[in-house]
Amino acid sequence: MKKIVVRVVVVLTALTGIARSQLLGSYGVKIAYTSASQSLNYPFDVAGWWVSSKTSAVSGFNIAAFAEWFDSHHLSFISQIEYDQRGANLQYTINGEPASTRGRLSYLSIPILAKFNIQTGSVSPYVIAGPRGDFLLSYRDFQIHPGMYPVYGKFKKTMLGWSMGAGLETGSLLPVNLLIELRYNLDFSDSYNDGLVKMRNNALDVWLGVAL
Description:
By secondary structure, this protein is mostly beta strands. The chain has one domain (2-211): Porin. It contains one helix and ten strands. The protein has one helix at 2-19, and strands at 24-41, 54-56, 58-69, 75-94, 97-117, 123-140, 158-170, 177-187, 192-193, 198-211. Strands 1-3-4-5-6-7-8-10 form an eight-stranded antiparallel barrel. The longest helix has 18 residues, at 2-19.
């Protein structure tokens, strides 16, 4: 993972030097608090610990490097590479007793977002939306007594999804632009589907960033 991030930073730095004058409007880094969860559906009666199970959100963090391209008066495009934490807290019943376990997934995520900016002076609001590709890096599966049910081990390794959100960006208040962004992420399809149980990622991120 560290090698991938270093290589991405090197590539972004090189592109910045080549295209800064025309194509590249700005670039920077972001960090986010994320509230991640997973939809859980089982349309048929199932046995075992799935019975009466449900999921709730877990907290995590994301980091990202981004570049903003083709910056016009109101419209630009953002390419971003992220380390994203996803997962869920699972409440279930086994042997008549309630229990819970937490699972964690790590993704390399690459969203391409259209950004519509409303320039109002020192602080400008904006909205973003666009597709996203996710690549599974690692996971810590649910721990189900007396052993592990390998749900995350059977998750799809690559996924396509959609991200949308809104934010605020400072203008000339500081030498660098600061931004705060709220973004919702959802997948187009299930990450896990064995014919009985279906699971799909979703998350709400709060990003803080610096743009140069």
